[in-house]
Amino acid sequence: MAESNDSQKDIRVGVIGAGRIGVVHLEAITKAPGVTPVIISNPTISKAEKAAKQFNLPQFTSDAMDVIEDPNIDAVWICSPSQFHADQIKAAAAAGKDIFCEKPIATNLAETVEAINACNEAGVKLMIGLQRRFDDNFKRVKVSMVNREVGKPIMIKLCSRDPSPPPFQYVKGGGGIFTDMAVHDLDMSRFIAGQDPIEILATGSCHIDKSILELEGSERFDTASCIVRYPDGLQAIIDVCRQSSYGYDQRAEVLGTLGMIQTDNVYPNTAKIYKNDFTGNADMPYDFFLSRYNEAYVTETIAFCEALVNDSPVPCTGEDGLVALIMAIAADKSAEENRWVSFSEIVESVYCENPTECQLLAQSDIFPEGFRPKTNARDLLIPDVDAKKKDGVQILETAGVNGEE
Fold first, then answer.
1. Dihedral sign computed on CA atoms, order 81, 82, 83, 87
2. Looking at the predicted structure, is the pLDDT value of residue 371 above 80?
3. Upper half-sphere CA count for residue 190 (Cβ side, 13 Å)
4. How many C-beta neighbours within 10 Å does residue 398 have?
5. Where are the alpha helices (DSSP H) in 248-384?
6. What whole-number distance in Å separates Cα of residue 253 and Cα of residue 237?
7. How many CA atoms lie within 13 A of 57 on its CB side?
8. Is the torsion defined by CA of 177, 182, 187, 193 positive or negative?
9. What is the maximum alpha-carbon separation in the chain?
10. Which helix (H) or strand (E) segment is 46 a member of?
11. Is the CB of residue 191 less than 8 Å from the CB of residue 323?
């Protein structure tokens, strides 16, 4: 009798959130081998119903907990508004579901640590949506760094300029330009550098929408810049602006000891016009983030699906999401206080009574008895499920080498 060597089971998943991002991920899930979407939720149930019909899902609901608690679901995609992420991550972890979550993990640092550790305690996978890591342009720069094609890196430059500013109500309560916009570039600088940063100097200003000047902190900035210091003198210089009249301007450059690598913007086509008064691209760069990064979102989703099917490590971890948030918070603090801020300073503000019960301490607080501040983000976390498996394999291999049974 012939036997199949295909032991991989079909992974059944649910999606929370039927907005633009949720639908992008859902469409990508339908293209990934070995993964089947079966349920989607959205508070406005008509959106969930529309997405379910469009992609042939048998179930839809208005309640995210219906997705999380479905006994037939192996994994959950969290594409809901940011303020719901932490609680939904914790609930999904408690239900034993693997989790993909759009950034941010949570709206503050203590909740972020709690949510990640909830997953690590439960032994479930957690992948964070930082889609630029999956963009072909940025990936090519990363490959160049790994292979030292331009020698030892000296300076990283990143710019991120949106086609038009968001409405006032989006900016208000959004956490500020470093948390809701520059966080992608801060993460990208770490991704390209391949090491953790040391400190940051940031500044911001308002040039476009003067109505936001009444807001607090970095919410009143529509333009900002940062210098990030990495080990061995490597620097990253980042500028962001909420308006670019010529479409999305998102480029990367690395200067190395042997040369330079640089990316260009992405256009809908490669057509160019040549006239006596103009030479250049026939059309503007993409002017909407879903158009610009559509393929990156798809690649990111498929990468998580592959990690589920093959039980392999996720390519963008909870720790990556935590460090990105720490970098954004440090940038905010630097701009507010007009000074260099070390990232360890931000980490030291987190006190955890246990891995899933954390709080933020102000400098004026009396530290709890026995509290020793952590200086590295990794030390706030317990090992994730993939790290535990890796350590287990290494222990077994060592035991084998030593002749142990």
1. positive
2. no
3. 23
4. 10
5. 289-292, 294-310, 318-337, 343-347
6. 10
7. 30
8. negative
9. 80
10. helix 45-54
11. no
**pTM above threshold 0.70:** yes
- Which secondary-structure segment (H or E) carries 229? strand 223-229
Q: What type of residue sits at position 176?
A: G
- Name residue, tokens 């200086």: 375
Sign of CA dihedral 345, 382, 320, 322: negative
Name the phi and psi angles at 43, rounded to 5.
-55, -40
Written as six digits, the tokens of 106 are: 């949570």
Q: What is the pLDDT of residue 246?
A: 87
**C-alpha to C-alpha distances, 386 to 95, 313, 320, 380, 389, nearest whole angstrom:** 18, 5, 14, 17, 5
The pairing of beta strand 35-41 with beta strand 59-61: parallel
CA distance 113 to 135: 27
Dihedral sign for Cα atoms in the order 109, 188, 160, 20:
negative
Closest CA to 111 of 130, 77, 76, 85: 85
Query: Cis bond leading into 104, ω under 30°?
Result: yes
- Cβ contacts of 141-144, under 8 Å, gap ≥ 24: 141/192, 141/252, 141/254, 141/261, 141/263, 142/191, 142/192, 142/194, 144/254, 144/261
- pLDDT tens per residue across span 253-272: 999 999 999 999 999 999 99
* Cβ-based burial of 367 (10 A; exposed 0-12, middle 13-18, buried ≥19): exposed
pLDDT of 89-123, one tens digit each? 999 999 999 999 999 999 899 999 999 999 999 99
Handedness of CA 199, 201, 207, 210 (dihedral sign): positive
Q: How far is it, in rounded angstroms, from Cα 21 to Cα 16?
A: 10
Beta-strand pair 272-274/259-262: unpaired
229-250 confidence digits (pLDDT tens):
999 999 999 999 999 988 889 9
Closest by CA position to 195, among listed 160, 157, 236: 236
Q: Tokens 């038009």 label which residue?
A: 164
Residue that is written with structure tokens 């509290």 in the block: 371
130: its two tokens: 């930082």
